Amino acid sequence: MPVQTIKVEPKPIPQTSEYVATIRSLRSAVVQPQVEGYIRQIMVRAGDRVRAGQPMMQIDPERQQATVAATQSQRAAAEASLEYAKQQLARNQKLLDAGAISQSELEQAQTSVKTAQAQVDALNSQIKENQVQLAYYRVNAPADGVVGDISVREGDRVTTQTQITTVDSEEGLEAYINVPIERSTDLKPGLSVELLDDTGKVIASNPITFIAPRADDATQSVLVKATLRTRPPGVRVMQFVHSRIVWSNEPQIAVPVVAVNRLGGQYFVFTAEPGQGGAMVARQKAIQVGDVVGENYIVRGGIKDGDQVIVSNLQKLADGAPVKPTA
Question: How far apart are the C-alpha atoms of 235 and 228, rounded to whole Å?
Answer without folding.
Answer: 11
